[in-house]
């Protein structure tokens, strides 16, 4: 029976939990690994072209990396289900170290082949990481705190670009010319990245995690035939497929914005971007996270209002980007923070793009968290989310691997957003209204379902509320 969802009307009596096994500590561990690995990678990326002098070859290698990342994101859930979350997180924390090293060698010696290898290896391991972190941040937190836990995760993953950006800014603040950043920048970033594998060892196995509502996290062991059957059932679900166009376009903007920075900003202005722009991510994640936990609104209202606002904001930003692009083409390269209004307008645009994009991705994770309560299923779902996002980034960076017209990127971004809207709305309008039982395998027996996640659902106003339970 399909019913309308809302938040529980009464709090479940909290269980005593050990801090080391708590859900918040697990989110912090995942955020810490992300801080050291993809986070520091993002700090370099926020410089445009990884801090190199020209964007074209860097964009080409980034495109290759995103292809491998997309593949590993999609199949990563299968790997995680076989080797476990902690080992998968440990392995996935190593690739970005190699990539940062390749940037250093390319900047110092012009070793371009190693830059391609580093990007591919980094893409593969990051894809595996996204398959680990996705189900942890969606399945571990208690439902009433899920939005805020997503906000904490966003903060942790973007604290790296902020801190890394501060380091980069400090090392490059006096470089008022265009070109590559200093070599010391890469050495400091590599040192921070090396802490990632050690932090990964602190992660608890799912069955040892303690939630305040007493619900146990089930990590099912399956034969290969059952694993592949469930994997196919999830990735071919009509709801996941309907969301794929929005997944594809959600980070499509990044190559264009990074290329703009490299083409038109001098080094110290790009370093300032690396320090300040990630605050837009943090603000976007926390803002949407707290809104999605707003108990005075129904789940349906939160899903619809947040989606409508963010889609309108994304489209509005691309109109702004078109105006800014024309201004930049007339102004020419070498923009510094002393360049007046042209710097302020472009800088604000970069910050707002980060705000909108991270808020959109947080909303997508929240939507997926309402489509299943099973850890393995969520691993497959979030893997598809990140995999399709990475496929979009691969195409976007491929387009910007040569000096193509800026208007092609602008037109594609607007077109993809508009194309995705009717498909995504088909799913968004069901959140808080209908169940998604066809992609939730509910493996537990009746006895096992005593440890369930209470999900109160709301009928029409004239009906009384009912309580449904889902196996975790």
TrEMBL record:
<dbReference type="InterPro" id="IPR036259">
    <property type="entry name" value="MFS_trans_sf"/>
</dbReference>
<feature type="transmembrane region" description="Helical">
    <location>
        <begin position="24"/>
        <end position="44"/>
    </location>
</feature>
<keyword id="KW-0472">Membrane</keyword>
<dbReference type="GO" id="GO:0022857">
    <property type="term" value="F:transmembrane transporter activity"/>
</dbReference>
<feature type="transmembrane region" description="Helical">
    <location>
        <begin position="239"/>
        <end position="257"/>
    </location>
</feature>
<feature type="transmembrane region" description="Helical">
    <location>
        <begin position="87"/>
        <end position="105"/>
    </location>
</feature>
<dbReference type="Pfam" id="PF07690">
    <property type="entry name" value="MFS_1"/>
</dbReference>
<protein>
    <recommendedName>
        <fullName>MFS general substrate transporter</fullName>
    </recommendedName>
</protein>
<dbReference type="InterPro" id="IPR051617">
    <property type="entry name" value="UNC-93-like_regulator"/>
</dbReference>
<dbReference type="InterPro" id="IPR011701">
    <property type="entry name" value="MFS"/>
</dbReference>
<feature type="compositionally biased region" description="Basic and acidic residues">
    <location>
        <begin position="446"/>
        <end position="462"/>
    </location>
</feature>
<feature type="transmembrane region" description="Helical">
    <location>
        <begin position="347"/>
        <end position="368"/>
    </location>
</feature>
<feature type="transmembrane region" description="Helical">
    <location>
        <begin position="111"/>
        <end position="130"/>
    </location>
</feature>
<feature type="transmembrane region" description="Helical">
    <location>
        <begin position="150"/>
        <end position="173"/>
    </location>
</feature>
<feature type="transmembrane region" description="Helical">
    <location>
        <begin position="375"/>
        <end position="395"/>
    </location>
</feature>
<feature type="region of interest" description="Disordered">
    <location>
        <begin position="444"/>
        <end position="472"/>
    </location>
</feature>
<feature type="transmembrane region" description="Helical">
    <location>
        <begin position="269"/>
        <end position="292"/>
    </location>
</feature>
<feature type="transmembrane region" description="Helical">
    <location>
        <begin position="56"/>
        <end position="80"/>
    </location>
</feature>
<keyword id="KW-1133">Transmembrane helix</keyword>
<keyword id="KW-0812">Transmembrane</keyword>
<feature type="transmembrane region" description="Helical">
    <location>
        <begin position="185"/>
        <end position="203"/>
    </location>
</feature>
<dbReference type="GO" id="GO:0016020">
    <property type="term" value="C:membrane"/>
</dbReference>
<feature type="transmembrane region" description="Helical">
    <location>
        <begin position="407"/>
        <end position="428"/>
    </location>
</feature>
<feature type="transmembrane region" description="Helical">
    <location>
        <begin position="304"/>
        <end position="323"/>
    </location>
</feature>
């Amino acid at each position: 029976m399909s019913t309308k969802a809302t938040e529980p009307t009464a709090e479940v009596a909290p269980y005593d939990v050990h801090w080391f096994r708590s859900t918040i500590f697990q989110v912090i561990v995942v955020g810490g690994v992300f801080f050291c690995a993809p986070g520091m990678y993002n700090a370099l990326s926020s410089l445009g072209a990884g801090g190199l002098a020209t964007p074209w070859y860097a964009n080409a290698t980034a495109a290759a990396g995103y292809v491998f990342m997309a593949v590993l994101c999609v199949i990563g859930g299968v790997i995680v289900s076989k080797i476990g979350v902690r080992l998968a997180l440990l392995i996935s924390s190593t690739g970005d170290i190699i990539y940062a090293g390749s940037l250093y060698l390319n900047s110092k010696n012009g070793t371009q082949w190693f830059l391609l290898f580093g990007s591919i290896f980094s893409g593969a391991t990051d894809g595996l990481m996204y398959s680990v972190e996705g189900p942890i941040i969606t399945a571990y937190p208690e439902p009433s705190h899920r939005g805020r836990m997503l906000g904490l995760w966003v903060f942790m993953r973007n604290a790296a670009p902020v801190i890394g950006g501060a380091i980069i800014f400090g090392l490059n603040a006096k470089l008022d010319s265009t070109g590559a950043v200093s070599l010391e920048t890469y050495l400091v970033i590599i040192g921070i990245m090396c802490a990632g594998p050690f932090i990964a060892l602190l992660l608890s196995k799912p069955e040892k995690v303690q939630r305040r509502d007493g619900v146990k996290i089930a990590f099912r062991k399956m034969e290969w035939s059952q694993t592949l059957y469930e994997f196919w059932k999830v990735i071919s679900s009509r709801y996941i497929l309907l969301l794929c166009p929005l997944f594809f376009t959600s980070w499509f903007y990044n190559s264009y914005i990074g290329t703009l920075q490299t083409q038109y900003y001098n080094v110290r202005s790009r370093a300032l971007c690396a320090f300040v722009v990630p605050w837009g991510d943090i603000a976007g994640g926390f803002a949407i996270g707290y809104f999605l936990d707003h108990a005075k609104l129904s789940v349906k209202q939160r899903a619809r209002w947040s989606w409508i606002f963010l889609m309108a904001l994304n489209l509005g930003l691309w109109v702004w980007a078109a105006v800014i692009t024309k201004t930049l083409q007339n102004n020419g390269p070498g923009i510094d923070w002393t360049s007046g209004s042209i710097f302020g307008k472009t800088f604000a645009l970069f910050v707002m793009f980060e705000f909108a994009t991270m808020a959109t991705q947080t909303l997508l994770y929240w939507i997926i968290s309402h489509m299943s309560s099973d850890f393995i299923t969520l691993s497959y779902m979030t893997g598809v989310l990140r995999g399709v996002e990475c496929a979009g980034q691969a195409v976007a960076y491929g387009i910007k691997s040569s000096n193509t017209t800026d208007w092609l990127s602008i037109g594609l971004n607007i077109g993809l957003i508009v194309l995705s809207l009717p498909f995504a709305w088909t799913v968004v309008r069901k959140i808080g209204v209908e169940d998604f039982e066809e992609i939730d395998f509910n493996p537990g027996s009746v006895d096992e379902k005593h440890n369930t996640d209470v999900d109160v659902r709301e009928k029409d106003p004239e009906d009384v509320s009912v309580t449904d339970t889902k196996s975790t």
